Amino acid sequence: MNVRLRGDWESWIKFFLKGVTATAEGATNSAIQILAMKDRYEKQLSEMPGNNNNSHRLLDLLFEMPRISRADVKDRLEISSPTAGALLEQFENLGILADITPERQRNKRYSFAEYVSILEEGT
């Protein structure tokens, strides 16, 4: 209102820039957390006995699709359904994924909960 009535642009610009700064700082903090998390999980997967490339491919996919099903993994990674199921089970056992449909025996969905939480913090 002061801008319209008194031409007080300086106060409005300061207010606006504080908002831009806070948003940029939040985005930077989220990016730092996400990169640290990704590095931690990549290291964890690399150190596992019998590690294969599909584990790393699934981790990359989770950053694109943080909520996922066996069919999604099968189709996107072009692997068999049993292999997709084994990967999802492995990631659930490692705490990377959480089953968000525990009442189901089939067509389960999983969430990359830590990633989703970081994204939700920033908004």
Structure in words:
The protein is mainly alpha-helical. It has one domain (2-121): Winged helix-like DNA-binding domain superfamily/Winged helix DNA-binding domain (Arc Repressor Mutant, subunit A). The protein is 69% helix and 7% strand. It has helices at residues 2-6, 9-46, 53-64, 70-77, 81-93, 113-121; strands at residues 67-69, 98-99, 109-111. A 3-stranded antiparallel β-sheet has the order 1-3-2. Helix 4 (70-77) packs across helix 5 (81-93). It is elongated and about 70 Å long. The model has no long low-confidence stretch (mean pLDDT 91).
Number of strands: 3
Q: What would CATH call the architecture?
A: Orthogonal Bundle
The average pLDDT is 91
Q: What integer value in Å does the Rg equal? A: 21 Å
Q: Outline the biggest β-sheet.
A: 3 strands, antiparallel
The helix-and-strand class reads mainly alpha
CATH homologous superfamily heading:
Winged helix-like DNA-binding domain superfamily/Winged helix DNA-binding domain
Which fold name is given in CATH as the topology?
Arc Repressor Mutant, subunit A
Count of alpha/pi helices: 6
Domain module tally: 1
Biggest sheet strand order reads: 1-3-2
Order of helices and strands: HHHEHHEEH
Q: Give the CATH level 1 class.
A: Mainly Alpha
Shape: elongated
Beta-strand content bin: 5-15%
Helix content: 55-70%
Poorly predicted ranges (pLDDT <50, ≥5 residues)?
none
Distance between the termini: 27 Å
For the structure shown, list the relevant keywords.
mainly alpha; Arc Repressor Mutant, subunit A; 6 helices
Question: Topology of this protein?
Answer:
Blueprint: H1 2-6, H2 9-46, H3 53-64, E1 67-69, H4 70-77, H5 81-93, E2 98-99, E3 109-111, H6 113-121
Antiparallel strand pairs: 1-3, 2-3
